[in-house]
Amino acid sequence: MLEIKGLKVKLEDEDKQILKGVDLTVEPGKVHAIMGPNGSGKSTLSYVLSGRDGYEVTAGSATLDGEDLLEMEPEERAAIGLFLAFQYPVEIPGVGNMTFLRTAVNAQRKARGQEEMSATDFLKVIREKAKTLKIDADMLKRPVNVGFSGGEKKRNEILQMAMLEPKMCILDETDSGLDVDAMKLVAEGVNALRSADRGFLVITHYQRLLDHIKPDVVHIMADGRIVKTGGPELALEVENNGYADILAEVAA
Amino acid sequence: MSAPAQSRRAQLKEAKLSATAERLEGVALPAGGAWITAAREDALARLRQMGLPGRRDEYWKYTRPDTLTQAEAPKAGVFDPEETPVFDGIDRVKIVFVDGVFSADESDPLELAGVEVERLAEAGAADIHWGKELYGVLEARGQNPVERPLATLNTALASDGVLIRVTGRAEKPVSLIYRHGSDSSDAVLHHVIKLEPGADLTLLENGPAAARFNKVLEVDVADGAGFHHVRAQGRDHERRAATHIFARLGKESTFKSFTLTVNGVLTRNECVVEFTGDEAVAHVAGACLGDGAFHHDDTVFVTHDAEACESRQVFKKVLRNGATGVFQGKILVQPGAQKTDGYQKSQSLLLDEDSQFLAKPELEIYADDVACSHGSTSGAIDEEALFYLRSRGVPTNDATDLLTLAFLAEAVDEIEDPRLAEEIVGRLEGWLKRHRRG
Ligand SMILES: Nc1ncnc2c1ncn2[C@@H]1O[C@H](COP(=O)(O)OP(=O)(O)O)[C@@H](O)[C@H]1O
Ligand SMILES: [Mg+2]
User: What are the sequence ranges of the domains in chain B?
Assistant: First the structure.
């Protein structure tokens, strides 16, 4: 599904290499986790995949179901089913959350040649999904993420994901800033979306999210590379011993 | 001040007055009855004293007045927008002017309970008329401390317009529609509105009016009365307009005015509000969209001369391709105007580096127990927000439009009636769609 090969990325404005050759394949139905110390390039990877400005790909490729992601505009990547839950969701004053979501859903449908969703159908679906994420009517009406608490912002990301039904979901530290209850809600939201034809790339700093969203594969990223790949036990190893041991072992 | 500077200033003033005298030479006042003729002659005399605005005037620092003051109106091609006119879905009494001349054929019967509407020509011919107490009177009051000579020129020369007296709560809006028919038309309209205590009226205005348009609206809002004004200026590209609103507010009255401006090579909208009764509220707001040859100037002057009044100015401008936006806004709080709540916000969204926003926000306060604030900013589209929207599948153009509408929303929100707000939003959306890149 998602195939990343030898991906090297530097900053556009600076001579700074951030990703130094990343190889990663996520198969449909699987949950891959990426863990790694701060500054190792996890967010950069997620931004480059979703098409944010400011980065320059110097080598390698990234495809989704065979389509070259790196050649596409961000909106095109979204339309073919890529979704990034932001580490820092953006506040947009003046744009209602509901308007935002409906615009997004219909823009994607249009790009895929599907009919737009009617206002009534949309309302019905969003109410239902919002309810399971404990997002109230007020949060739907308010401007996108404005005045939302950290947890509300993250739940809002998951709501967007649920509405857009992407086939490849990247979650960038969706657990950061969440208390245990909020994390459970978010994890339930993610688990509800798990299916045989959907892939997940869960970026996290801590093991605890992975207690709730069980990964099939765990990667460790350090200094712009994936330095180790294993099963769920790798996450536990990080939890117990920190990154130092793994990094030392890799370096050796 | 040094002597040479003094004489330099005197020289400038002298040159200005002689230029004004020259410009007014041979100008004939419209025919009319006694009181209106007196008002016109008085205006002409005042104008000769103050002189027409010149490039060196501080108040015209950001906007060139010459094409507004010169004898002949620069030509402006009539533009057919091929769309349903704004406010079309609103039940209202329509009063139509073509190139600044009332058109009975195209207007609705001027019948509305609690509202008396007369043409300026008819009212001016009457021996006794309430208009005498207001026509040119509010305009003259508004000349202090800053002169607004184009409004005085209007008082002298306007031959058409409406006088509206409102005695009750009008059940539907009165809608002034300005059609542009000739590419050399030079329209001068002067309207006077008198709201009796407790009365309420919504006034709508739309249309390009003429190649050049000079319009004055004097509004006297008596105690407890309410005036709601929504105006849509557009869409002729070459149009030039100088408009003035002079509002006087009585105790516990309300004045709300919103203006949308799209296109037009030059527009100067002045709004002068004077609080004379306590606990009144005035909101003046504007949203403008300019692309290319577009110069838009909002000049607002609010004088608090009563206690516990609230004034609010919200102006938003979207500019691109070398368009220019100007905002000059002042809140003057006179001695004794305690508990004044004055707010002013002017912002521009510059969609490229060629466009500019020139702002001069001012506060002048002579009372100690007041809360006044102002803020002026200029910015570009928020790239973070744009990427966020695009990452959700919203194409760049739609995302930019959405963020632009969001920027304007604060001004549009000043329109109380949701149906009217919807009409305005529809125009904004239409304009943005038409002006998309690539
Ligand atoms: N836009 C940017 N400008 C400057 N430095 C950046 C930028 N984006 C990322 N970096 C740098 O790249 C490295 C990787 O950052 P990031 O991808 O955010 O790591 P992680 O998400 O793993 O914490 C860090 O050293 C960070 O400072
Ligand atoms: Mg990160």
Answer: 30-381
